[in-house]
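User: Sequence in, structure out. Go.
Assistant: Echoing your sequence, followed by the structure tokens.
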Amino acid sequence: MPKSDRSFYNWLMTNRNPVAADEIQQFANNAFLDSSFPKQSKDFDEISHYLEENTSYLMSMTIFDQAWERFQAER
């Protein structure tokens, strides 16, 4: 799959790490276990709203913002 066609979730899954050394890796591990995560979305607002309204595993939205910046940089 070309990088530009990836959803945010698909990109995030490349950051999974069983040791979870940093916050984005922890976010990825938890999102993997979240069956309702908007897996096909590439839309910042949709994902941000979902995380704010439906999850308790993300300690700060700053973590999502940092992950989104990395996602955009690799597109």
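User: And one key feature?
Assistant: The radius of gyration is 11 Å.
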